[in-house]
Amino acid sequence: MRTRIALVLLALFLMAGNALAKDVVFAVDATYPPMEMIDADKNIVGFGPEVVVAMGKAGGFNPILKNTAWDGIFAGLASGKYDAIASSVSITDERKQNMDFSDPYFEVKQGVIVPKGSGIASVADLAGKTVASQMGTTGYFLCKKIEGATAKSYDEIGLAVEDLYNGRIDAVIADDAVASNYALQHEQYSQKLTLAFLIAPESPEYLGFAVNKGNKEIVDLINSSLAAIKASGEYDKIYAKWFGAK
């Protein structure tokens, strides 16, 4: 009887702990596979969401993932609709003026997707071409810097890849993991498209969790949780699941 009572009390304690755990709402634009996407059951999945879930377990908070369109994701953060953004946000000096960032959780380069046989093999080959990316991303900022190229923006990276597949544009630039997913692993697109090359930034480009300016409580919670899953090896397990061993 005492054992049974002890088990019941333990269960109630755990339930109470979960109920008292702090909710932390993360905005996610789930249109960026394999980083953030929607699965067949309409769940938000991907490398980033899985990292966030693991951080919640390690840090004792309850992560809530809120699917949010990219074009309004930063305005929503500023207006307090959520606590943080977990959506492959590159840490840039310009963005730091308006928001705070966690420690980096992923490093990226920019990948260039082109049609097979296009002859495009370098940035110089993009002169005179229409080059596209998702609006407001470092990929799109790069498109605008390519000499002689016409930059085109899309609400979602998948729409840009679809237009590339159908011959409406000449190239798409995206984070290397995303570019690789579309060009090399996607059953349909990989038949006609390829990952031509990577563009390394002048200085390393890292992704971080964006938080409202001055919200030290959330930044500290995210940083300590991220450090915990890196120390435990959980981060490496998630990384290996999505991208293979480092």
From TrEMBL:
Pfam families: SBP_bac_3
Leader peptide range in chain numbering: 1-21
Annotated TM spans: none
Keyword Signal in annotation: yes
Domain of life of the source: Bacteria
Domain Solute-binding protein family 3/N-terminal: 23-246
InterPro entries, per database record: Solute-binding_3/MltF_N
Keywords: Signal
Keyword Signal: yes
Gene3D superfamilies: Periplasmic binding protein-like II (3.40.190.10)
Name of the protein described by the UniProt record: Amino acid ABC transporter substrate-binding protein, PAAT family
Organism of derivation: Desulfomicrobium norvegicum (strain DSM 1741 / NCIMB 8310)
